[in-house]
Amino acid sequence: MTTTTPRPTPADTEQGDPRLDADVRLDVDHLARVLLGHYPELRLGARRLMTDERLHRIEGQTLAEHRDRVLGQLRILAAEGDVHRSFPARFGGADDHGGFLARFEELTHADPSLQIKSGVQWGLFASAIYHLGTERSHDQFLRDALTVAVPGAFAMTETGHGSDVASIGTTATYEPETEEFVIHTPFRAAWKDYLGNAGLHGTAAVVFARLLTAPAGAPRVDHGVHAFYVPIRNPQTMEFLPGVGGEDDGLKGGLNGIDNGRLWFDHVRVPRTHLLNRYGDVAADGTYSSPIASPGRRFFTTLGTLVQGRVSLDGAAVTASRLGLTIAITYGNQRRQFQGGTGDEVVLMDYAEHQRRLLPLLAETYAAGFAHEDLLAAFDDVFSGRNDTPDTREDLETLAAALKPTSTWHALRTLQTCREACGGAGFLAENRITGLRADLDVYATFEGDNTVLLQLVGKRLLTDYAKGFKHLDAVKVARLVAERASDAARFRTPLHRALQTVSDVGDPRRSAGQLRETDTQRALLVDRVETMVAEVGQALRPAQKADPATAAALFNSQQHALVEAARAHAELVQWESFTAALARVTDPGTKQVLTWVRDLFGLTLVERHLAWYLVNGRLSAGRARTVTSYIDRLVSRLRPHAQDLVDAFGFEQAHLRAPIASGAEQARQDEARAYYRAQRASGDAPIPEKHTR
Amino acid sequence: MTTTTPRPTPADTEQGDPRLDADVRLDVDHLARVLLGHYPELRLGARRLMTDERLHRIEGQTLAEHRDRVLGQLRILAAEGDVHRSFPARFGGADDHGGFLARFEELTHADPSLQIKSGVQWGLFASAIYHLGTERSHDQFLRDALTVAVPGAFAMTETGHGSDVASIGTTATYEPETEEFVIHTPFRAAWKDYLGNAGLHGTAAVVFARLLTAPAGAPRVDHGVHAFYVPIRNPQTMEFLPGVGGEDDGLKGGLNGIDNGRLWFDHVRVPRTHLLNRYGDVAADGTYSSPIASPGRRFFTTLGTLVQGRVSLDGAAVTASRLGLTIAITYGNQRRQFQGGTGDEVVLMDYAEHQRRLLPLLAETYAAGFAHEDLLAAFDDVFSGRNDTPDTREDLETLAAALKPTSTWHALRTLQTCREACGGAGFLAENRITGLRADLDVYATFEGDNTVLLQLVGKRLLTDYAKGFKHLDAVKVARLVAERASDAARFRTPLHRALQTVSDVGDPRRSAGQLRETDTQRALLVDRVETMVAEVGQALRPAQKADPATAAALFNSQQHALVEAARAHAELVQWESFTAALARVTDPGTKQVLTWVRDLFGLTLVERHLAWYLVNGRLSAGRARTVTSYIDRLVSRLRPHAQDLVDAFGFEQAHLRAPIASGAEQARQDEARAYYRAQRASGDAPIPEKHTR
Fold first, then answer.
1. According to the UniProt record, where is the region Disordered (chains A, B) (predicted)?
2. CB nearest A669 (choices: B189, B357, B684)
3. pLDDT by residue (tens digit) across B241-281?
4. Which of A503, A689, A690, A692 to mutate to test binding with chain B, by most B CBs within 10 Å of its CB?
5. What residues contact residue A170 under an 8 Å CB cut-off, 6+ apart?
């Protein structure tokens, strides 16, 4: 957790003199290299591959055509796409988990459906076989999954249970007589749902079910959620196998290159060896064993593999935000609308409101990108085994649960603002923003609902605050927090005092200068997280002696505050990653501009939560006023660098593929201006009626 | 302007005792009647018509199929839909402008594409002939437009000029020799663009062009933007007529039932009588005449007819928000997820965060609905001629320019939150929310870009503040405001003093009580608008003596603040409409619940802008804390009434057509719970592994 661990502070830049700003130059190539992060060659290679037209989305395809195309693209990637990097060498991989995801994120340029369909096949289906299975499972199932000889579904979610996997209804009952598991759907709400590859293309699925054993003469025992490899369709006829049924989920709000669907099982039998048996196994006689004694910890370990998907969505959200901003800012630098004071029409990016709408989103996109690189590094540390402990796993899961909601919601907000900033042109499918937004929409709720994930983060923050409890239900969290609530005053004091010195300064110019300082921004952001967590902890105190229903009600009353605290934590994490990244920038001009971008991000966070800082006495009213005026100043300072800042994302036209960002608008504006210039020069311009009076 | 005119205050309800809340009953039928507003029978009739399956959107149709279907639906409406109400009796209408729009809004249930295609045909194309033409124009063109014998485009927007109609490049040059206008597109940026009916179906267009005359021997005179009736396609072959060209805009982010397209004109000739000549005419010899001497006022009068579209979009945004909330809240009352303190799974709507996300949006939707009814009444007052003066027209235009951005942005936010609140089910096209959101997206930028409209409102607020200037460019507004800036102190004092008494009260319980009071809410909202406008006025003061470029730069520096002031004004207008509507509620229980909804709306606004109230000393930190806790209390008070509040919108299943809001989820949950209940009763339930130790 980064909340309480200050990182090295890069030297603060000098208080800039606006008259000197003109001399500041951003080195686009240098910044582009910084942004390529830990896997520059892999990313550049993936981007080169993504210029292949065969991989590009064709807007306006029917559901059937789009699904068919994406399946074909999957086979192209299987052959040419280095998509097995995370798997062992004997399966054609390189045991490179971080590089695997870095390449995956770059699929977003081509078509988010391709990213997600690939995620279903390799990131979920094949990875479940790999991570939840043993060598036995790998030998049986992995090769066909990796080559897409078997397109597979990841059958975890049920119609009746979305993010609450622990409550799924599907059962897998072991029969010692036949040495088979009987997979069964007991009621409609237990149908598997929203599964990619289940609607049409999948011939097998990794099915999550409650493993039931019936020791001789004893009642059945529920060993909790386990994963099973289950063939579902005849690969020749593509008909469902006996006992398997399903439905196509049909058209969705986006991602229509993926054939989501539903599955149900009517006493479907699979051999004992189809249990993916890394974290739990059943002997031929029905004896259950597991390397993890606690069913709860076993469940969370099983689900831990899901973190890969969340890391990948975080990266895709950053990519999509960058695409949208590159299109909108490029267009905004060419498009003119309404006359300004000089009689000439004004370039959109010169309007203060246009800058105010786009540039803070650009700053946040930079922050999300740097945070994502840190997440990717943490992911690789754990999954490579270099630093794989229960603690680092949990830190990774918490980090992913904090960043995925933040970046996916940010992407939706950013793409929508970009769409509107491009007006009617932004609404045309050819300019791609609406399609990206439609596709990214579901990123906010799949692979863990954003609000549910933020609650997990909030509980972890409470855990850190109250020390000593993890993965607990509402009642237990409330109780344990309550035990520590009396520490709250001590917990808050030092930071609070530190900030008093900030808020006591009267001179507004000096105030703005202080807000620019790294330590001030950090102190403001850290203090907010810690105070909010402590307040929730305090509020949960009476739960200690309450009955379960009362304790749950009390926890519910704090749900909103807890989610807000988790959001604040995620924002702080992004800010810390951005700040740490500044140290990697060596070119002085680039570092100056990027420090302004970081300041804009930090101050935007403070402005967003300004009421909190005022209510809690962390900023005086006078200081609060300087936040907004300093943001205004940063925005106009950054305006000349806006194009460079999006160019550094490194997209070519083959990635953007948006006519309005191709230079066509500039050509149209130039032609119109030349026309009127020539008309004036020839003396042939019509006289406005009002000049004839 | 409602800013400074307090309306009658309905009696404040008593401070409720939560223990008595259980007795409060909402009369759904009574509330539904109140919500039907000024045109209950017309709305109910339109809703009955909208149960006709032929008018329903079929999700997943191709572009071609969807366009074809909507054109067919247009012809059904022409025959059966009472869509000519706003036109004179001799054209089958009833001169009923408000009723015309009220019915139009109800088309949104069936398919927003149908609403907008109808809007293009009757609200823009036929209405332009009617409002901008004279009897001569009506006789020539109106009947075929109304019957859809001639599907028509409204060719105003150009590729190079969106909301800035004054700068369009298309010309219409009068030739006395032939008594013809020559319509011409001088460069690519002057192509007409985004025009409904231009892509495929239109055989004529009302084309906006700069009217040029060339008096004998004198230079050409530009009389500004006028509208011309121009045939564009051969109705038999559907080929473009000679000199006319165009392109299909192709697939869009939504509204794909409409064939948007581009048009250009290469010296296309139309007879002199094709000028829609109400506000400007050209005699056979080329002499120009107009009943409006000022070209500026003539331009804004010509554009004034556009207000109808904005009123209609405001209504559609309300309808779409109501649809989304009805679906999400109905589902949220049936769906269960995660176990609560009692071991039973919790209904989504019982989660505090779920309530916090949906109920303030519900309150804002109520406010937007009441404000829309007031807008509709103002529109009917003006367009019926009952109260048609330059002042009432301008008030109407300002009101529409304030409400359309507010309600369309609200609809997008609401639909997105509803989508997420329904999880994966919300992403399925069959549940309609994603489709509605995609369609409504462009409502934020067409018929006047939201940000541009809010700027117009802001300028009007400055006008009222500075008195005596209207429709001025940035430079003039800055100068004129500056002249009045010295009044600012006087302007602000009384309200500021009134509010001091509010903020000086220390007892938090009494504070919450005061925030509940209508007058307190009004004072807080009014004060904010007035102060923000005055501050912008003050800031623009130096523009008085500045050169045009400096004055424009100064105005630009205040653009964000001006847009924010306009937003605050629009929110106040909505709040006033809601408050006025409470007086129309006669049933005491309904009035009580609706007053809580109004309070929730008012307090949500105060919370949204809490930093402003704190920075400006309008609320103390202690008082500010009570805002949030009072919102929490209101939200839990309203939770038991949430279903009634959406049921009162009056939609039937034939309007909702969303499987998740059909009761299917309740049936699934009931089946699952019955299954587990039976299992427990039979003693056959598996024993959790952890209980076997």
1. 672-693
2. B189
3. 999 999 999 999 999 999 999 999 999 999 999 999 999 99
4. A689
5. A158, A183, A184, A185, A186, A190, A192, A207, A208, A209, A210, A265
